[in-house]
Design brief:
This protein is α/β, with parallel strands linked by helices. It folds into three domains: 260 residues, HUPs (Rossmann fold); 121 residues, no CATH class; 48 residues. Helices cover 44% and strands 15% of the residues. Strands 5, 6, 7, 8 and 9 form a five-stranded mixed sheet that branches. A four-stranded parallel sheet has the order 4-3-10-11, with helices on both faces. Helix 8 packs across helix 9 and helix 14 packs antiparallel against helix 15. The radius of gyration is 26 Å and the shape is elongated. It starts with a strand and ends with a strand. The relative contact order is 0.11.
Length: 513
């Protein structure tokens, strides 16, 4: 079984990762606050964590129990609902649906649990944590609200590397987000206020503060601490995750999470995203500029998750070209496979599909020659292609094992594409070699999730597929009667509709622009 080396923000070093119990990774990731549409900076975090999930599952062979929450009650959601003059759920429901749709467009796997903070069972779990903190001497009450006293928790500040001398003992803050330079006692439960939603879960009427929400949901849905991984964007280290540690460990008297994983910021054209600069882009705005979600997913994975990434429109063009190169390469492999169809191996029927969530997840074949390409007859002399594929698998796996180095993993894919393209050009690739290479690309993409996403996009053409095929036949008839002007007119007609034609020895194929 592959051992992943994962960097933990808490220890500031890479450490070998394995689940604490059985073979199941208990993984909590802070989800979106649903007061607006998530932007591409948010999705950098979610896409990188999706690849972490896939690596744990398909490369390392672990089972997953992942929780990604929806923060549907906090200062921002309440303010949004009040401004829209609707109830809290009526306001947040559409934003949750938009997030789910965008996540699907970006090819993200669905976590095992996606709780809402305002679900009754979650509110009661938060109340249980707060009452445990009271029993353990970590809280005080003021004007109907309950606060966590950071002076009662000597370990406070370990995650963010805060200076204990700078902490303001006794000063409290009611807002959910506050200055990163001013650690203060934070609110666990906000006393009821006119016009705000209110619940009573044994703590008095009111509503939860932002930080207690994640502790309550993580401990309820993932069981006794420590959980294996807690993750989110780098901006959550303080105060959110620091406060989660304090309140969770103060309540349970046990370590809350073993690994803390944080994804770095996304900049846009070298600047921090800001509404005032007009550079806070959503997936819909990316699509309006003519780019597909698969290209954005590729771009978000093109740099190591712990390095700041600069989004540019030129970078999006390059991402489109990179994916096109892989898809065109797969088409060349198909052409090779058609040369001698009787010798072409039959891959398993589920090649390229994500296994059902309920299916056990053995370690994938990434890094090994898949058994279905091996024969029980006397072995042929090892081919140069087999060596190339084996090297690519080992390089890809090593990159992921090294703290999820997706940039190096992508480089391994393109090295494979380059070397095999050269073999095709030299007519040195057999149909069985092509099947071996294709299987490797499919295994790599189970983790990266880019090619399958592009193929799904291509399967939804801008006009009906049967209409495309009719026009291709019309063009072919024009070419046969040497009416090349009519043939070119059909090609241009399809191009104007967003469909490109490519002629090759096996016939004509089409793809979306």
């Amino acid at each position: 079984m592959t051992m992943l080396n994962l960097y933990s923000t808490l220890t500031r070093r890479e450490e070998p990762f394995a689940p604490a119990r059985d073979n199941t990774v208990r993984f909590y990731a802070c989800g979106p606050t649903v007061y607006a549409r998530a932007h591409i900076g948010n999705f950098r975090t979610f896409v990188c964590l999706d690849v972490l999930r896939r690596t744990l599952k398909y490369v390392c062979g672990h089972q997953l129990r992942q929780v990604v929450n929806y923060t549907d009650v906090d200062d921002k959601t309440i303010a949004g609902a009040q401004q829209a003059a609707v109830g809290l759920r009526e306001y947040t429901d559409p934003w949750i649906e938009v997030f789910r749709a965008d996540a699907k467009l970006l090819g993200m796997e669905t976590p095992e649990a996606t709780p809402r903070a305002t679900d009754e069972e979650n509110l009661r779990a938060m109340g249980g944590v707060i009452l445990a903190l009271e029993r353990n001497g970590h809280t005080y009450r003021r004007d109907g609200s309950i606060y966590f006293r950071i002076a009662s928790f000597p370990e406070y500040g370990r995650l963010a590397r805060l200076d204990p001398e700078g902490m303001q003992e006794g000063a409290s803050v009611d807002v959910d987000e506050y200055s990163k330079d001013n650690p203060r006692d934070f609110v666990l439960w906000k006393g009821a206020r006119p016009g705000e939603p209110s619940w009573d879960v044994g703590t008095g009427p009111g509503r939860p503060g932002w930080h207690i929400e994640c502790s309550g949901m993580a401990l309820r849905l993932l069981g006794d601490p420590p959980i294996d991984i807690h993750a989110g964007g780098i901006d959550l280290v303080f105060p959110h995750h620091e406060n989660e540690i304090a309140q969770s460990e103060g309540a349970t008297k046990r370590t809350f999470a073993r690994f803390w994983v944080h994804v770095e910021h996304l900049f846009v054209e070298g600047e921090k995203m800001s509404k005032s600069l007009g550079n806070v882009y959503t997936l819909a705005e990316i699509a309006a500029r003519g780019h597909r979600p698969s290209a954005l997913r590729y771009l978000l994975l093109s740099s190591h998750y712990r390095k700041q990434l600069n989004f540019t429109w030129t970078g999006m063009d390059q991402a489109e070209e990179a994916i096109r190169r892989i898809v065109d390469f797969l088409a060349r492999l198909e052409d090779v496979g058609r040369v001698q169809p009787e010798t072409r191996p039959h891959p398993p029927s589920d090649v390229g599909r994500v296994p059902p969530e309920t299916r056990p997840h053995p370690p994938s074949d990434v890094g090994r020659v898949p058994p279905e390409t091996q024969s029980h007859r006397p072995a042929d002399p090892p081919s140069r292609i087999a060596d190339i594929v084996s090297h690519a698998r080992q390089t890809f796996r090593s990159a992921l094992e090294s703290d999820l180095n997706t940039a190096a993993a992508l480089a391994a894919v393109f090295d494979l594409v380059r070397d095999v393209n050269a073999a095709i050009d030299a007519r040195q690739l057999s149909p069985s070699d092509a099947a071996t290479v294709r299987q490797a690309i499919e295994d790599f993409d189970r983790v990266l999730g880019v090619v399958s996403l592009r193929q799904a996009e291509d399967a939804q053409p801008p006009i009906p597929a049967d209409e495309i095929e009719r026009l291709i036949q019309e063009r072919q008839a024009a070419r046969q009667r040497r009416d090349f002007a009519a043939a070119d007119a059909v090609r241009q007609q399809l191009a104007d509709l967003g469909v490109l034609l490519e002629d090759n020895p096996g016939g004509t194929r089409w793809k979306k622009k």
